[in-house]
Amino acid sequence: MTQNKETIKTKIWYEESEADNPYAAKACYCSGYDVYGDLLGKVSWVQYLYLLFRLELPGRQQARLLETVAVALANPGIRDLSVRAAMNAGVGGSTRASALMAALAVGAGNLGGGREVYLCVALWQSLGSDLEKWRQAIAEPAAEERIDVWLPMEHVPGFDPNGASCPAPVLQVLEALAEISPENGVLQWLRSQRIALESATGYPLAFSGVAAAAFHDLGFSPEQAEMLYLMLRLPGAAAHALEQEGNNWRQYPFFGSSLKPLSNDEYQDVLQSLENS
């Protein structure tokens, strides 16, 4: 006797169970597409990623733009604090999941992190390609939401308050993305108005600002952009954490020359100090 099939569905996902096992899926559909019957082997990773978030397959231009963003963000580099957090976990002997969680935690905030991208995409939504609106928003920033969770922004989202001039990689990424972005998108406008915006803010454009413009041109919401920014930066954090697993603190790229092991007397002094504190 055959059991009735069970279906589980959300707006994004629909599953049909195996006839003999309601806990196993027989078919999985993403926004109506049979993932393992129709998509597997026929679409790229970024096309599927776009489908998951936007519920439709991207066009050729959109897929190329998202793929370029993914390459640009894949490894923020070892100067980036989220990557450094993962490296610290790796060299310190923490679990690999801990390294990724450290990267997410450090890379989630207001300074070059996911929250900054969220706020910047929200600005693109409200201000668009209107330089005077941008200047007004820069001069009179809107009140922060969720101050119980996030500290207020101390700089204009998308710009680097610690920067002296716009770094070459940021300019290269902006140029590459603007070349393949839609003509009515904000990336091309950002390329032409970058200097004016930098003059208004007093800060150079940052990677977070370029990424936010690209996500806006791709049609992602601020919430979706925040998630994607966090996800797409993890490959570099993972690779650098794994590299540091095989090293010890003497080979660590940062501060290694300034560190030395404690002598037994120094170690005892530290323990005594902790006991007395």
Distance between the ends: 72 Å
- For the record, the count of structural domains works out to 2
Proportion of residues in helical segments: 40-55%
Structural class, please?
Answer: alpha+beta
Query: What's the pLDDT, averaged over the residues?
Result: 91
- Rg from alpha-carbon coordinates: 23 Å
Q: Tell me, what's the shape?
A: globular
Number of helices: 13
What's the number of extended β-strand segments? 4
Helix/strand order, N-terminal first: EEEEHHHHHHHHHHHHH
The portion of residues forming beta strands comes to 5-15%
Unreliable segments (pLDDT under 50, ≥5 consecutive)? none
Strand order of the largest sheet: 1-2-3-4
Strand count, sense and barrel status of the largest sheet are:
4 strands, antiparallel
What does this structure look like?
The protein is of the alpha+beta class and 277 residues long. It has two domains: 7-42, no CATH class; 68-238, no CATH class. The chain has helices at residues 35-39, 45-54, 60-73, 81-91, 96-106, 114-127, 131-139, 168-180, 186-201, 207-217, 222-232, 234-245, 264-276, and strands at residues 7-9, 13-18, 21-30, 33-34. Strands 1-2-3-4 form a four-stranded antiparallel β-sheet. Helix 3 (60-73) runs antiparallel to helix 8 (168-180), helix 4 runs antiparallel to helix 5 (96-106) and helix 7 runs parallel beside helix 9.
